Amino acid sequence: MSAPVSALREPLITGQKTYHAITEDICSPTEKTPTTAWVIAFICAVSGLALYVFSVTWTIWVGIGSWNLNRTINWGWDITNFVWWVGIGHAGTLISAILLLFRQKWRTGVNRAAEAMTIFAVICAGQFPLIHMGRIWLGFFILPYPNTRGPLWVNFNSPLLWDVFAISTYLTVSILFWYTGLVPDFATVRDRAKGLRRKIYNFVSFGWTGSAKHWQRWESLSLVLAGLATPLVLSVHTIVSFDFATSVIPGWHTTIFPPYFVAGAIFSGFAMVQTLMLTTRKVLKLEDYITLEHIDSMNKVILATGSIVGVAYLTELFIAWYSGYIYEQFAFYNRVMGPYFWSYIGMMGCNVLSPQIFWSKRMRRNLFVTFLMSIFVNIGMWFERFVIIATTLARDYLPTSWSYYSPTWVEVCIFIGTLGLFSTCYLIFIRVAPVVAVAEVKGILKNGGDQYVGPKANQSHH
Amino acid sequence: MNQVPSQILFGLYHDEEVLLQAVREARSRHLEIDDVYSPFPVHGLDNVLGLTESRLHVAGFIYGLIGALTGFLFMTWVFTRDWPIIFGGKPYFSAPSFIPITFEMTVLFASVGMVVTFYTICGMGPGVTNPTLDDRITDDKFCIAFTLGESGKEEEDNLRRFFKETGAEEVHVKNC
């Protein structure tokens, strides 16, 4: 039986795999004792997590005064980090939901890890607005619950409240989507395990049997969840951009923000997926499932979204000039030439200029270049949020209140700490769960495996 | 499926194409298939088996509608009836600014509702143990299962012949 063979498409699974070999390759890392590389990485990650706990405790104990925010610049590293982390999360949903709707088969190799990344990134993002409240024990005030003060409700007209709903819905839906995909794979791990391990995986696999009717419902559920997650992911970063765009601050009050933020989010998210995938495939020896073809495809997305972001930056500058509105013009002059010019250069260099290297196919398939670029893009996107937030606030309407802001050690440590929080979660994930979607990869073996679509396909199978 | 202790006769196949062929054959011989198990969703299996389309998405639509109404009507009630406040000179009933939360509530209700419904109708949930026929079904084996009824030997021989003719690698009997 021959699968539809395309001369143009490269195989997505290499190494002449059988179904059993796929199970073996992907499940075995969860069954062995951790490698030295993993242990070292885990120690580093947990140290970062400890730093996070310490610096957050410090912030709550001492108060927001331990940060360098002032009356002029009241959003600094905290909100920059919040937007950065939310943005990173978006690639996971893009890969799992939007590419599912577009029937892009290469997603199966990377969707599981990317979705996990989404969840962990959103968890990291959620920390910042909460810590920023100062009195975190009153954090429940953001929820509309019946209270004894009237009841006095929250302001449903405020983009900051929309954010509460958007981020919490996003986290919930991402977890549901991810876990529903994991259930059949947990069942695979369960059926290979013995003793206590079997009991644990039996608990988490929810009694999955692989019945035809269950698979049919499972596919229907995945498709509808993808259909819901697609507008959701676009809405989340749109709403994050509303935090700025609905204000009356020159430089923030622009209608270009929603699409520009969404493109930037996908851009930074794909960069983070690359960083994680390049290390994961190497450490867990998954080169046959996360192939150069996958990396090439993701680099194309990085190139496209990076260029969209570049067009957005230039459009902003043009519109500022064209509007003839002096406050808007000053805001953008200040971004490029003001006291934070270095962050503008960092943003332009990392986000717009450097990804242009990916026009070359050789560069897209070079692991070292890809890894370096993924780091560059993440730095660049962090700068972008910093440029938008701090630079704009530093020069407001009254020159008497102009100010400059640089973070204290507490703010820096919280940021490094969330990297620790993120890595700890990710490292635990790759130990306990199949890091590639086993069932979905098996489903594309016949039209993506090299023994079926590769150059030798005809000799070996007819 | 049924709670009465019964015997299950099942055959394991090594490939989904062979499985599909076998299911077609079983249907044409009017053998009553109890269930088919596979390690991944086999394309076209539901048609061959004659499964009706899942109505899960209809449930999802209803949940989404409930979510949308809950969100929108609640905000409307708060801002027009319970505690009207003027924000930024806008009217109490400022529908456009209710849209983002209404949308999020739609997605939230639809997703949570569908996932809960899915696990409930499939008889799954945290810690649930459903009997499985063979450990390799979640790995690389495709399984067709029949319930052995009262008629006994003759029926079993017939089914065993079917498995042999359709290329099953192994045939087993299990008490469930």
Overview of the structural elements:
- The complex is a heterodimer of chains A (462) and B (176).
- Chain A is mainly α and 462 residues long.
- Chain A has a domain at 19-140 and 153-247 and 267-304 and 408-456.
- Helices cover 71% and strands 0% of the residues of chain A.
- In chain A, helix 3 (77-101) packs antiparallel against helix 7 (212-245) and helix 4 (107-132) crosses helix 8 (257-283).
- A four-stranded antiparallel β-sheet of chain B has the order 2-3-1-4.
- In chain B, helix 3 packs antiparallel against helix 4 (99-121).
- The N and C termini of chain B lie close together (10 Å).
- Chains A and B meet through helix 1, helix 5, helix 6, helix 7 and helix 15 of A and strand 2, helix 2, helix 3 and helix 4 of B.
Outline the biggest β-sheet of chain B.
4 strands, antiparallel
* General shape of chain A: globular
β-sheet strand percentage of chain B: 5-15%
Q: Report how far apart the termini of chain A are.
A: 8 Å
- The total count of strands of chain B amounts to 4
Task: Kindly estimate the percentage of residues of chain A that lie in beta strands according to DSSP.
Answer: under 5%
What Rg of chain A is obtained from the alpha carbons, in whole angstroms?
23 Å
**Total count of domains of chain B:** 2
Identify the biggest protein-protein contact and residues per side: A-B, 65 and 64 residues
The portion of residues assigned to helices of chain A is over 70%
CATH architecture of the largest domain in chain B: 2-Layer Sandwich
